[in-house]
Amino acid sequence: MAIYRTSDCTYGRPRITVELADRGVRVNHKRVGRLMREAGIKGVSRRRGFVITTHRNKRDRPTPDLVQRHFKAASINQLWVADMTYIPTWAGFL
């Protein structure tokens, strides 16, 4: 429990097992998992899996490709492109 609290309640079964091994306590990861389950504690998971950020209507036609996949402009300010990147954070997407 002390290792769990020291980690700000973020360590899960694998990290607690490694921390115990570093302190000289030999214990199986399955036992650590069982004891955590019995105590009702869980580690924090960074990855939440694949999240769909755009819900497109299947009936709508796709946006036309106005640049025809030619991303090189002949002169300045003739072609502008953008990329929408979603960065997951604990508070949501940026």
From TrEMBL:
Pfam families: HTH_21
InterPro entries registered for this protein in UniProt: HTH-like_dom (IPR025948), Transposase_IS3/IS150/IS904 (IPR050900)
Start and end residues of each HTH-like domain: 2-48
Name the record gives this protein: Helix-turn-helix protein
